[in-house]
Design a protein that fits this description.
single chain; 410 residues; Dihydrodipicolinate Reductase, domain 2; 2 domains; seven-stranded parallel β-sheet
Length: 410
């Protein structure tokens, strides 16, 4: 497959010869967590990086580091104690490090951790999803650029994949006019060690979330009760999905001036979480604000563990349309994996591979979905273990059903 060149014309160039000649060291906060250990495993397989797994348990970090060294038949992984609430500890851990990867539930410390990274002359990548994280990083944009640091945020599956999928689909069109993204996530929560902090961050984000869709030149509010049916294909099948706003999508109308319709939809978790956790719980969050977060978090955690049922897996699909050589063409594509955490790790690793070879390393603040080379990105997702399926519809110029289960041809 020939890879298209991404539009990275802004920002200062880095010395790729010097960059590629050096072996890199990555400090991964949360590196022994569900997503972190999967990212580490992929990076060890695909690169020669050295990894330092960090968190509040030095013993656990060391245990997972030993396991990864045995799996990779190397000694490139070590573990250390880092509590991001203690900037001194983080600064010490960043000595000799090139990149800080945030795979932990530490959104509240974003500004503090980012400043430590800037001072230490270390780049940044995160897989966290939170509006307040983006606010904190954007407030530091000037400092990031002046320090010559490359900060890539909103990595992983959601956020991270929606804009990349749309950009990939657009490479098969002369003019992109519309795009709709759908996602479904089904995990066996009883088998996972998910911290209370992770659930709390998730609930806080939902409480602040205000869905929007792009319609004929402007972003408009879209109530969460206005659902639609989406066909996700086997094994998840047809599900109702509610509108969601993914911040990276805001950058697409500027890239594609002919775009008149852009929206994103997410299927629910299970009846209890959807109606009790985020239904009744949402009323409490709006009425009481932060005071309701602990109670709602406990209800959501209970519902996820008690009422989630197979089949397990994660999928994100795109249905787009536009003009190609004077004809209306529809584009359909999907990325999936039976392990939802693996589908967070695979896009993160694919992005980091582009960062490590210098091709997307630019001073500034970037979002994964807008900075990766989309063609190489999709090829790497498949090579790293995700299922990637796609197709073109040149008959109707539309995509209203499920995903066409065949390879995408030009």
């Amino acid at each position: 497959m020939d890879f298209a060149t991404g539009d990275l014309s802004t920002g200062r160039e880095c010395n790729l010869t010097t960059w590629n000649a050096m072996s890199r060291t990555i400090l991964m906060l949360g590196g022994y967590g569900n997503a972190g250990v999967r990212i580490a495993r992929l990076l060890l397989r695909e690169s020669d990086v050295r990894l330092v797994l960090a968190g509040r348990s030095a013993a656990r970090a060391g245990l997972i580091a030993d396991r990864l060294n045995r799996e990779s038949k190397s000694s490139r992984v070590s573990g250390t104690l880092v509590d991001v609430a203690e900037p001194r500890l983080l600064r010490k851990a960043l000595d000799g490090v090139d990149l800080l990867v945030m795979a932990s539930s530490t959104v509240a410390q974003t500004a503090q951790s980012a400043r430590v990274a800037i001072d230490a002359q270390v780049d940044w990548f995160d897989i966290q999803s939170a509006e307040r994280k983006l606010v904190a990083l954007r407030a530091l944009r000037e400092e990031i650029e002046e320090a010559g640091r490359c900060f890539i945020t909103d990595g992983g599956f959601h956020p991270g994949l929606p804009a990349a999928l749309v950009r990939f689909g657009s490479t098969f069109l002369d003019r992109l006019q519309r795009a709709s993204i759908g996602m479904a996530l089904k995990l066996d929560w009883r088998e996972l060690e998910v911290s209370a902090a992770t659930i709390r961050e998730f609930v806080e984000e939902v409480a602040l979330h205000r869905p929007q869709v792009f319609d004929h030149g402007e972003w408009k509010a879209s109530p969460s009760w206005r659902t639609r049916a989406m066909a996700f294909g086997a094994p998840i099948g047809r599900r109702r999905a509610a509108p969601v706003m993914v911040d990276e999508l805001r950058g697409l109308p500027e890239q594609y001036p002919a775009l008149i319709e852009l929206n994103c939809w997410a299927a629910g978790f299970n009846w209890f979480v959807d109606w009790v956790g985020f239904g009744a719980g949402g009323v409490a969050l709006r009425a009481l604000g932060q005071r309701a977060v602990p109670a709602v978090s406990r209800v959501v955690r209970f519902g996820l563990r008690r009422f989630s049922r197979p089949p397990w897996g994660a999928i994100m699909l795109v249905e787009a349309g536009g003009w190609k050589k004077g004809r209306l063409v529809g584009v359909r594509g999907a990325v999936s994996h039976w392990d939802a955490y693996e589908l967070t790790a695979i896009p993160a690793a694919a992005t980091l591979l582009q960062y490590l070879d210098g091709s997307i390393r630019r001073p500034g603040l970037w979002q994964q979905g807008l900075v990766v080379d989309p063609r190489r990105f999709m090829a790497d997702l498949e090579r790293l273990g995700a299922t990637v399926e796609y197709g073109l519809d040149v008959q109707t110029g539309g995509a209203t059903g499920g995903v066409d289960r065949k390879r995408w041809g030009q």
